[in-house]
Amino acid sequence: MGELFSQFNILGAFWVTIQLTFFAAIGALVIGTVVAVMRVSPVPILRGFGTSYVNVFRNTPLTVIMVFTSLGLWQTLGLVLADEQSQHFFKDNNFRLAIVALAVYHASFVCESLRSGINTVQPGQAEAARSIGLTFLQNIRYVVLPQAFRGAVTPLGNTLIALIKNTTVASVIGVAEASFVMADMLDARADVLFLIFIIFAIGFVILTLPVGLLISAVSERLAVKR
Amino acid sequence: MNARRTTALVATASIAVLGSTALAACGSDSGSGDGGDGITVGIKFDQPGLGLKEGSKYTGFDVDVATYVAKQMGYDEDQITWKQTPSPQREQMLQAGQVDMIFATYSITDERKQKVDFAGPYFIAGQDLLVRSDDSSITGVDSLKGKKLCSVKGSTSARNVKEDVPGVNLQEYDTYSKCAEALANGAVDALTTDNTILAGYAAQPAYKGKLKVVGKTFSEEIYGVGIKKGDKDRCTKINDALKKMIDDGAWQKAVDANFGPAGFKVDTKVNPPKPGGSC
Asked: Are residue B140 and residue B100 in the same domain, yes or no?
């Protein structure tokens, strides 16, 4: 087992998984919040755009989006996210393309989680805000969203856990995260197949289990008492 | 009645699922017995020129050699059951008796020898480069500096090239087809893996005339026939069959038929190999 850890960079691979999760989570949160606001806005075009966004990206397999960023955005449309002359061009470019794919995909889930959070806010709150003259954006910014986020901690946490595990899809475009190194190890050391599986299964449990526990604790603390 | 039918359905479905996951080490499929009703042969299903499943037909060099060997062992073509053996699962499937022998670009290595036995070898391949036909700047592994290279994640070829050319700019996809596409549209400059596999891609209708194999190998991959550990009897039988195949010209014929269309020259210094080294 120690020999496996010295032969392959397992910890480095999980570090890439964590980095992917971190950046993609921030991206998904930003995009998802914007889309959620669009979906509850009074402007029909924005509402239509938000609905389409969610339906398109939520219903497209992540692998397809991931491969599209590489074959479509990069190879065909020429979108380059890293220095092409650099030695690490593929490494950087793939990593950033993967973040784009993960963020765009999970934003649709973040949006729906947030919308469920918005539904926990009593209509009286928004009505009261409007009656004292707040505009739609002020209403969302100061009254609805702060309460909505507190009500949406659990579904947002579920999305985060799904995101952690979905980072494994990035291996199809060559990002050296956990499942990528696992494929490498399985090929080189098929003699310890099950041990390799167990190492990576435990690795992911170590990443996701604390997130789950934290989410439960935080959601209870933050829940709006009514 | 209805409930019982549902239970039966669920049970059948779960058996089907279990059976299809090759990882289920306990799943002992039929066809592990010697002689009599048939033989199960493991091949690749997705490598043009070596082992390729096209509808219900199987083509490629591995398939031709396996068919010949099986015939010498007393099995007709319709007694052979072809089974897909993806690289990481090959040892497991032999040990569990899911396949009787494996012809799947299976390189003989010391790590694998601890788990399974090898008959053969029946071909000596080597890692090579596939480039665009109009590209003359890449002549071998030494001219890769500053070039963009593509290979498949978790493959021996990818690991080799990382060692041979430190700091190479290597794109790794999950399939060779994606690499071939990236090569054809100019996103990468070369694709590297065994020359046999490259020849298969160069000969595909979509890439014919657009891609070429450089023809300068920088590793030696010795393809053997994987069998269950300790099966000396079968090992000898396979070796005898392979010797006969090379002697009576059927081996050369299979090489010409499968690699010929790509204009791929077999390295005659090491080929045909002498079977019988490992048992």
From this structure: no
Model-wide pTM > 0.95: no
- Supply the ipTM of this predicted assembly: 0.77
Query: What 3-state class would DSSP assign to A34?
Result: helix
Mutation target for A interface from B108, B153, B192: give the one with most A CBs within 10 A.
B153
Q: State what percent of residues in chain B have pLDDT above 90.
A: 20
Query: Is residue B111 domain-resident?
Result: yes
Q: Does residue B39 sit in the same domain as residue B120?
A: yes
- The answer for B276, left when phi > 0, alpha when psi is -120 to 50, beta otherwise, is left
Coil, strand or helix at B81: strand
The SS3 of residue B66 is helix
CB pairs under 8 A between A and B: 75
Q: Are residues B163 and B194 in the same domain?
A: yes
Mutate to test the interface with B, among A68, A184, A189 (most CBs of B within 10 A): A184
Q: Which domain holds residue B55?
A: 33-125+222-262
pLDDT the model gives residue A70: 92
Q: What is the full DSSP assignment across A153-181? A: HHHHHHHHHHHHHHGGGGGGGT--SHHHH
